[in-house]
Design brief:
The chain is an alpha/beta fold. It has eight helices and seven strands; from the N terminus they run H-H-H-E-H-E-H-E-H-E-H-E-H-E-E. The protein has one domain: Vaccinia Virus protein VP39 (Rossmann fold), CATH 3.40.50.150. The protein has a seven-stranded mixed beta sheet, sandwiched between helices. The two termini are about 35 Å apart.
Length: about 220
């Protein structure tokens, strides 16, 4: 058993790239936005494939996404849906939402992925409790703690809650950094680890991914 954490060098990265098949419509979406000033916000294929697998493993019936951007992660999760499954994805920016809806229609995913436009907390408040198998959180970091509380209510017992970027570009380890973004990430991870209804692990992939199983009330 290796107790040390290992990094991923260029050679191992290339090997992993060869082991990750990216569906054609998603690959084209990456290419379309390669020069976007916020292209870093697109989920890496390593995370995309993980999301697809976890969507399938959690049942693939209903997925909730907080933070749509250009639809990459929603499309990855659609890969893991069962035939009658769907994704509800929440986006504050009306322009990104409109662009994503157009793209989803073009690639045949409009019937499987529904984009909700507006502040996430407003939409989340109106959703049915325990209706989702999985919730993926990748939105404004200061809002993460509030999103977690909604996710615990909205994800069924046995379902999964995942949050991206919990390392905050390693800013979370600097005690002098009290930016709302960083404080939100710290608060999220503390709440996820200490929550009595969650069993949480941190996966050191990309900028850190927190995975929680919703065990329900004890």
């Amino acid at each position: 058993m290796a107790l040390e954490r290992r990094g991923i060098d260029a050679a191992l990265g290339a090997y992993l790239d060869g082991a990750t098949t990216v569906p054609g419509h998603i690959a084209a979406r990456y290419d379309e936005h390669a020069d976007h000033p916020m292209s870093v916000m697109m989920s890496h294929p390593d995370i995309g494939r993980l999301l697809a697998a976890l969507t399938a493993a959690s049942g693939g019936r209903a997925v909730l996404e907080i933070g749509t951007f250009v639809g990459i992660s929603a499309a990855w999760m659609a890969e893991g849906l069962r035939a009658d499954g769907h994704v509800d994805t929440l986006e504050l920016d009306a322009d990104y939402a409109r662009q994503t809806e157009t793209w989803l229609a073009r690639v045949g995913l409009a019937e499987r992925v529904l984009v909700h436009v507006g502040p996430a907390t407003d939409t989340l408040a109106g959703l049915r409790p325990a209706a989702y198998d999985l919730c993926w959180i990748d939105a404004d970091k200061a809002g993460y703690p509030a999103y977690l509380e909604h996710a615990v209510r909205l994800v069924r017992p046995g379902g999964l809650i995942l949050a991206d970027n919990v390392f905050g570009g390693e800013d979370v380890v600097d005690p002098a950094n009290t930016e709302p973004r960083v404080e939100g990430l710290r608060a999220y991870l503390t709440a996820a680890v200490e929550h009595p209804e969650l069993l949480t692990a941190v996966i050191p992939i990309a900028d850190g991914l927190a995975l929680s199983v919703n065990r329900g009330p004890s």
